[in-house]
Design goal:
Largest sheet: 2 strands, antiparallel
Helix content: 40-55%
Oligomer: single chain
Distance between the termini: 34 Å
Strand order of the largest sheet: 1-2
Number of domains: 1
Number of helices: 4
Structural class: alpha+beta
Number of strands: 8
CATH class: Alpha Beta
Strand content: 25-35%
CATH architecture: 3-Layer(aba) Sandwich
Amino acid sequence: MPAGLSIKLVAPNGKSWDQPTGLFIDNEFVPSSGQEITTIDPATEETIAVVHAASAEDVDRAVNAAYGAFRSAAWKDMSAANRGILMTKLADLIEANKELFATIDAWDNGEYIAGGSPRT
């Protein structure tokens, strides 16, 4: 990932991770040509992170990249069975990272997960 497009975050429950802050376009994180968005912990009013915000130009780039990927031979010619295998791998990755996703979502909503349950 290019420098400046991720930050190290540590949630109130001690869980830490490298958080991408760029836009995911054409299978890579890239800086925006627009503004930034600051995420705030509603419980403390402290900044959690500053991330890139997509401009209309960035959205156009993302849509064009997605359209190109969808129309590519690699995807278009892939069998339904192989697409299903990819979807299963995605589901497995989500399952393997569910605690991190729950931590991020809870923190962004001003709650914290400790011992597997939210607390305010």
